[in-house]
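Hi R.,

Here's the chain you asked about this morning:
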Amino acid sequence: MKVIEKTFEVTGAVSLLESQGKTVGFVPTMGALHEGHLTLVRRCAAENDVCVVSIFVNPTQFNNKHDLETYPRNLEADIKLLQSAGCDVLFAPSESEIYPEPDTRRFDFGTLDKVMEGAYRPGHFNGVAQVVSRLFNIIKPTRAYFGEKDFQQLAIIREMVKQYNVPVEIVGCPIAREESGLALSSRNQRLSAEGKAAALSISKALFGSVYLKNEKSVSELKAWVIDKINSDPMLEVEYFDIVDALSLESIENWDETDNAVGCVTVYCGDVRLIDNIQYGKFN
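And here is the predicted structure, written out as tokens:
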């Protein structure tokens, strides 16, 4: 596996591969890799001639300075994991490589970035669009792989690619979970043993809600999930909404969409965790 820090070097390396007719798969990450990331990397490696992974903790998508400062970083451990997962090229740039000048671009995603995460983290998705579009421009991948745990992010990246006619196939991959059901996340590293045990209530509530869909209205189910999670004193729901998978607009009745998704954000102490569950067909 090649480890490249300079933009011009990775651009040159990938251009050479593409000139040889090779397909290039890409997995953008912020490091602190776990099995969830590795499932993306393995799929990327299996479906493309070359697998490129980036590790870059993007400052423009953090609206909380403390969150940026405490985001886990361990490049040496990440390199070992990527080598075992079939990564061919790791792009690990500095901030000046990604943003040689301040990125002042503003994206318009309609309501997609105004709801849920967008409402609680203003500017977050603009930062995501800045860095992902920049990385796409550098790597120019055939396909790019994203986890469905960041459900809203995936919808916004698809919209960005559509708006700007970026020639890349966006591949969404199912949420990777621990055997306990807890969604894998780099932020899990910050949980105490007690906090991790408490966090299991999040997925348990989501899984349980699937079986209650036919018994409860949308509003009743939302209240049930929130109460179930908040019943653990270590947990506090920031929001739980049931939305259409494509528009991300809240639904009031189950017959409004065949693709309902429940999206939740929960504080476990000072660690902010997200998860989601699909109530209907989603492509």
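One quick note: Strands lie at 2-4, 24-29, 50-55, 89-91, 143-147, 169-173, 235-244, 260-268, 271-278.

Cheers,
M.
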